[in-house]
Automatic annotation (TrEMBL):
Protein name: Thiol:disulfide interchange protein DsbA
Organism: Simonsiella muelleri ATCC 29453
Domain Thioredoxin: 10-206
Source domain of life: Bacteria
Keyword terms, alphabetized: Disulfide bond, Periplasm, Redox-active center, Signal
UniProt region (Disordered), positions on chain: 205-232
Signal peptide per UniProt: 1-20
Length: 232
């Protein structure tokens, strides 16, 4: 009987790993849950600001981490809008980056323009000119999204969510619409906490372990290899 009980307890331990997380230190539970865009997956949501130096410092760490997300987890960003005059232009740019799928390439250039070059990318005229000149990323593609019919609507939605969920600081990261990630030991250490919160949400929802991501096929011909390099 004792052996059976020990085996049962061991099985529970192996199937439900203990989390080395402390509420109030590593994370907080939101008073008001946030609806996810994709309900059948685990959302990692960042409220950020292109004007925020902490967001600038977190961005390269987070963009690298996102590439390792399991197949049941996705990343979404909202630009905060606390003041329409000071932030809505930035939100339009963030919406355009999201829509064009260029975050990995565009964000470093945008943060550099704002902080290193002191370019006012909250101003639509300045942003339009700046995007049209970019070659490090597809500036024209982002500009097309920036000028699209839905762009201002998406920016207004970011402003509404900033207000609805009482976002008071940046960066604010929400996992599974429930947990606010804290960074007591810095951004790098916070990525481990992020992994654990994702797993915590997965277990609470009774989700299966995620399927492996599809491997990226390596081109067999030189011509195919050149095409891949050109697309990057």
């Amino acid at each position: 009987m004792k052996k059976l009980l020990l085996a049962t307890l061991l099985g529970v331990t192996l199937s439900s790993p203990a989390f080395a997380l402390t509420e109030g230190k590593d994370y907080e539970i939101l008073k008001k849950p946030m609806p996810q865009i994709e309900k059948d997956k685990i959302e990692v949501l960042e409220f950020f600001g292109y004007f925020c130096i902490h967001c600038k410092n977190l961005d390269p760490i987070l963009l690298k981490k996102v590439k390792t997300f399991p197949s049941d987890t996705y990343f979404h960003t909202d630009h905060v809008v606390w003041d329409h005059d000071a932030h809505l232009g930035f939100a339009r740019l963030a919406a355009a980056v999201n829509q064009s799928g260029t975050k990995q390439q565009a964000n470093p250039a945008i943060f550099s323009a704002v902080f290193d070059q002191q370019i006012d990318l909250n101003d639509p005229a300045t942003t339009t000119k700046w995007l049209s000149e970019q070659t490090v990323f597809d500036g024209k593609k982002v500009l097309a999204a920036y000028n699209s019919f839905s762009n201002q609507t998406q920016a207004q939605q970011m402003a509404q969510r900033t207000s609805d969920f009482g976002v008071e600081s940046t960066p604010t990261m929400i996992v599974g619409g429930k947990y606010k990630l804290l960074f007591p030991n810095g951004f790098e250490a916070g990525m481990t906490t992020l992994d654990e919160l994702i797993e915590k949400v997965r277990q609470e929802r009774g989700m299966k372990n995620p399927a492996p991501k599809a491997a990226v096929k390596t081109p067999k011909s030189k011509g195919g290899s050149f095409a891949v390099q050109a697309a990057k």
